[in-house]
Amino acid sequence: QQQVKQSPQSLIVQKGGISIINCAYENTAFDYFPWYQQFPGKGPALLIAIRPDVSEKKEGRFTISFNKSAKQFSLHIMDSQPGDSATYFCAASWGNTGKLIFGQGTTLQVKP
Amino acid sequence: NAGVTQTPKFQVLKTGQSMTLQCAQDMNHNSMYWYRQDPGMGLRLIYYSASEGTTDKGEVPNGYNVSRLNKREFSLRLESAAPSQTSVYFCASSDGRGGFYNEQFFGPGTRLTVL
Question: Which residues on A lie below 8 Å from B98 (Cβ)?
């Protein structure tokens, strides 16, 4: 019940295309859903996050779509660029524990 | 500000050897975390410390111990290393108050190989 399931495991997109990564969860107590971006040899860094009382959040080319009834959320990268090539992790947390439960990760490759 | 720093960056151990991974943060964060990252497994929490003086087990604590030395420093110890502990280890810190205060800041990682 504490798991966050992420798909696909890997994704190849042409430059200018839309990248879509999906996550699903079971625990309805989760109240914070961030996405982290990790470049090779680096630690993950927060990209964008959303609370469940909002259905969508957009920051530049990055958008989180949230479907509370389906217990799913997704990351959309518009106009994907080669510089977006990285591993993306969804995550979830609850209350004030500070702990995050991470998905399995998606390796995105954007071809020029 | 250096953020979160980790030492060493790389380490090779033989089975049965011990070592301590060091982590420090300069953001005055209350909470600190240790994760391991393995291919296809995402980031799995080993131990965390919600505040100075407290530590709790995460998802995969077996074979590890931690010490929250002070508010800045959180170390991870492998008492008797096993090949299954070959992984990349990340330390992270956060304000810890929940919600959007949960943003975790990660260090650069330690790549550990156990032969």
Answer: 32, 93, 95-98
